[in-house]
Design a protein that fits this description.
Layout lengths: L3 H13 L2 H8 L3 H15 L4 E3 L4 E3 L1 H29 L3 E7 L7 H12 L3 E7 L2 H9 L5 E5 L8 E15 L12 H4 L3 E4 L6 H13 L5 E4 L9 H4 L5 E4 L10 E5 L5 E8 L6 H16 L5
Parallel strand pairs: 3-4, 3-5, 7-8
Antiparallel strand pairs: 1-2, 5-11, 6-9, 6-10, 6-11
Helix pairs in contact: 1-2, 1-3, 1-4, 2-3, 5-10
Organism: Microbacterium elymi
Keywords: DNA-binding, Transcription, Transcription regulation
InterPro entries: LysR_HTH_N, LysR_subst-bd, WH-like_DNA-bd_sf, WH_DNA-bd_sf
Length: 299
């Protein structure tokens, strides 16, 4: 494909019909201009200009290129600009996967920051349990992900994004609801709802190990709570569950979130392919890590 620089040089000569004036207009030496025209003619395989010692005129092929060249150059420039912007991650698309619990605070903040920095990157989202998020990134179904207490998985890179302090979610009329902080031993006196281990083994083990580390045997009730937006199991009885502080913005007046004594936390991680990331995913990584640093998420 002819280079756009050679095409611009030809258009300048075609308009001026004079190599000296065209070279001066382009701010290049006349021999360089002549070489560009010869190169263009060689690539096209046709003669574009008739040259004598005194005059320059267009051949039939040269006249056709002169008439159609400006519009073609605009199209070429637009194409190069589009390709460059996509490659730089200025425009494009990002497929982001995350668990429901990260959708209350962490993901909305990061998506908003991404929109502000790169408004022409379209973001589509998928809500899924954390293990599914990791597999989606590994298998190329998602460009990036957010996961809670993720277990290592070959084929993905995990970067800590947030230390989310753990607390107890209870109904407003629960016996523990008046506390400002709660000991795990007190939590164990009441049923504690926990998702089945298959839903997120690492998070399940984190909660079980947390009780074990404090020498406490909880009354665990396993229930698939991943998509229970109403938290009906909390509101309707004396049970509690342990969740991170970042889920607190979604809590209604009928419930309370109370921090655990000791400040235990779980990790919220950024999930990315270890290599060959899309440009948009690289931009999201920059935005997410910078946002986490600026807002003290890892403190």
């Amino acid at each position: 494909m002819p280079r756009s620089g050679c095409s611009r040089s030809f258009l300048a000569v075609a308009e001026e019909l004079n190599f000296s004036r065209a070279a001066e207009r382009l701010h290049i030496a006349q021999p360089s201009l002549s070489a560009q025209i010869r190169h263009l003619e060689k690539e096209l395989g046709v003669q574009l200009l008739e040259r004598t010692t005194r005059t320059v005129s267009l051949t039939e092929a040269g006249q056709t290129l002169f008439e159609r060249g400006p519009a073609a150059l605009v199209g070429i420039q637009q194409m190069w600009t589009a390709v460059r912007e996509i490659g730089q991650g200025v425009v494009g698309a990002l497929r982001l996967a995350y668990p429901l619990s990260a959708g209350f605070d962490t993901v909305p903040r990061l998506v908003q920051a991404m929109h502000e920095a790169y408004p022409r990157i379209a973001i589509t989202t998928e809500v899924a349990p954390s293990p599914t998020v990791l597999r989606a990134v590994r298998d190329g179904r998602a460009d990036a992900g957010i996961a809670r207490s993720p277990a290592p998985l070959d084929g993905v890179q995990l970067s800590p994004l947030r230390h989310d302090k753990l607390g107890v979610l209870v109904a407003a009329d629960h016996p523990l609801a008046t506390r400002t902080a709660i000991e795990l031993a007190d939590v164990a006196d009441h049923p504690v709802v926990l998702h089945p281990r298959d839903a997120n083994p690492a998070h399940h083990d984190l909660i079980v190990d947390l009780f074990a580390a404090h020498g406490v045997q909880p009354r665990l009730v396993e229930r698939d709570i991943a998509f229970d937006l109403s938290q009906s199991f909390i509101i309707g009885g004396s049970a509690s569950t342990i969740i991170g502080r970042s889920s607190a913005p979604a809590i209604r007046d009928s419930m309370r979130w109370i921090p655990l004594v000791g400040g235990e936390a779980e990790t919220v991680a950024l999930v990315l392919p270890p290599a060959e990331r899309t440009a948009a995913a690289r931009r999201f990584e920059q935005i997410a890590l910078a946002y986490a640093s600026e807002h003290g998420w890892l403190e």
